Amino acid sequence: MLKQKIKAVTYCRVSSVEQEKGFSISAQKELLNQFAEKHNIEIVKEFSEAETAKNAGRHKFNEMLQFLKKNSEVNTILVEKTDRLYRNFKDYVDLDVDKTGYNVYLVKEGVVLTSQSSSHEKLMHGLKVLIAKNFIDNLREETQKGRKKKVEEGFFIGQVPYGYKKLDKCTTVLHEQKSKFVKRAFELYAQGNISLKNLVQQLYKEGYIYTSSHAKISSGQLEKMLKNESYIGCIRYRGKLYSGKHPSIVSEQLFMKTQKAFKKDGKPDTKCGHNFLYKGMLKCAECGCAITSEIKKGKWIYYHCTGNSKVPCVQKKNYIKQEELDLQVDEAIKRVVIDDSLADYINVLLEDSYKEMQVSTKQKYDYLTTEIKKAQTRKDKLLEMYMDNDIDKDVWTKKTSDIDTQLNLLTKQLETMDLSEKQFIDEGKNIIEVAKQTYNLYKQQTIEEKRRLLDVIFESITVKDRLIHYTYKKPFCYFAQCDLDDVSGIVDYIKQNIYN
């Protein structure tokens, strides 16, 4: 009796159109098709694209997710390896096997990820996503070093703001007409008696033309213009302000007066959402309520207990600046970082443990291979008996089915053992590499990425008397407790809690 085939889709990816012209996509497809044929899998649809996986929103990736949602009988994805599938956290979350119920075969890694996978398998997969993300970030960091240096030297990157023009790659000067438009917009709005909508009309009425194709500026573009620090001679890059070498269009006094004009009755005239780093992540250590965040004096971010509890809490009055939290969180992350010498020593111990494991598992390997040969021999004898009419078809079918079940079980045990042996060192080194790079990885991230990484590292963070108290998730808690005198503790943890 033939076993029903598993229905699946395949996903292949390269990072650029240039790579698509090579053999990478076809090689991936060949690998996945061979795997499917060998493991009784029917490929119902193929998805492939030439697009980087560092950002969410890939066309074919999203098309694949939509296809799986519409075809509930298909819940299996075949892909070459983790970094072909994703190198960003959003896609990782969107494809969460616990949430979607999908089965993800990472063929080259020998891993099948399902909702029934062990917490260790899911942890290792998450760490691989972190490492893939770190690889992308390192590449991006290399390309951005020159950009950052250029900004630090006071020069714009790329297109200059409205009101300026470039004479060459570095020299920025005022645009004669557009700079007058900008200055007049600041002067009018700073008076505090005109709305953005009316300001648009007033500028047009006074003869200030935005562009030849759009005589009137939109309210949204006007608001961005009036909040842009570039016009006082600064450049904002990755959340920081640098002093620019371009000329100012308005004075700092006029700029600040304009920002105050955005407030009426103490509230912003227009809604401006703020993406606070620690929003929803902190609890009060005294009453257990959430720690909320707010902006004071237009620029300082403070956190304090909401106090929404029947129990009186003095922490409601203990405001703490985000800069203070940043320093404490940075130190907490640094505690799980290990240096190169310690990492090298742990890897040596892992190598020794691997050799010991090879010796101890050889007997199990021999036993499984022997049992597989015996089962196959019994199956061959049954076939001979059936061909010689010594047993009827029903008996032959039932006994053969029983042996096939036994063979599948033995083969899976053997494959699992081979896989754990093969991946022992690689996974161990991955964990050690993450422990080495955790802090650098964190500092390179955007606010959203930092929030996700904090969620990976910390079990909880509470605040009391402007000090944070925290607990780590595994395996970070073990690295925080590590010292040179007890390196074996980490190795024991890796052996007992990750690989078993």
Describe the structure.
There is one protein chain. The protein is of the alpha/beta class and 500 residues long. 52% of the residues lie in helices and 15% in strands. Strands 2-1-3-4-5 form a five-stranded mixed β-sheet, sandwiched between helices. A three-stranded mixed β-sheet has the order 12-16-17. A hairpin with a 2-residue loop joins β10 and β11. α7 runs parallel beside α14, α13 runs antiparallel to α14 and α13 (340-387) runs parallel beside α17 (487-498). The radius of gyration is 31 Å and the shape is elongated.
List keywords for this structure.
500 residues; alpha/beta; five-stranded mixed β-sheet; three-stranded mixed β-sheet; 17 helices; 17 strands
Principal-axis shape: elongated
* Helix coverage percent: 40-55%
* Major sheet strand order: 2-1-3-4-5
Arithmetic mean pLDDT: 80
The major beta sheet can be summarized as: 5 strands, mixed
Question: If you compute it from the alpha carbons, what radius of gyration comes out, rounded to the nearest whole angstrom?
Answer: 31 Å
Separation of the first and last Cα atoms: 36 Å
